[in-house]
Amino acid sequence: MTPYAMTYALHLLAALVWVGGMFFAWMVLRPAAVSTLEAPARLQLWLEVLRRFFQWVWGAVLILPITGVGLLHLHFAGFDSAPRYVHVMMGLYIAMLALFLRVQVLLLPELRRAVSSEDWPGGGAVLGQIRRWVGINLLLGLLLVSVAGSRPGF
Ligand code: HEM
Fold this sequence. Notes:
Layout: H1 3-36, H2 39-76, H3 84-116, H4 120-149
The structure holds protoporphyrin IX containing FE (HEM).
């Protein structure tokens, strides 16, 4: 395996974990939890699910720019000569990172506080905000992968 292929594979795996994880959470786990669990159990489940998923997202958040910059140098000899879709990818990455940090740093601790004080309506409101931001991030991720996948030559 060449260094380019290894870096490329890592880059794709990190994108897959992040975007695929959000897709599963939003499209599968969320409706299943709503239809089977009462608010206290549902909020506790989400707290644990997000805590575990975000550990993987942290890995993806670090691996994507490291491998992305590696690919930039291996394939395009730097930022300036890279095609437009790579610039779009970097811009969308920054937007996705900002939304992820908002949920991780501001909203997840609020959800933890609500669950530990058994404030179920308050917890439901925070979970609603988390759902919205993760939904937006999922759309950005899907857009990014579509932009990356429709590069010239394919
Ligand atoms: C600072 C952040 C990033 C940089 C510098 C970067 C850079 C790159 C580069 C240089 C390539 C290879 C292009 C080629 O060889 O033709 C690539 C491919 C790709 N990247 Fe990124 N990337 C970043 C973030 C992301 C993110 C956040 C995602 C998705 C969540 C993503 C998804 C992809 C995909 C799916 C490809 C494969 C596209 C293809 O070759 O068809 N990237 N990226």
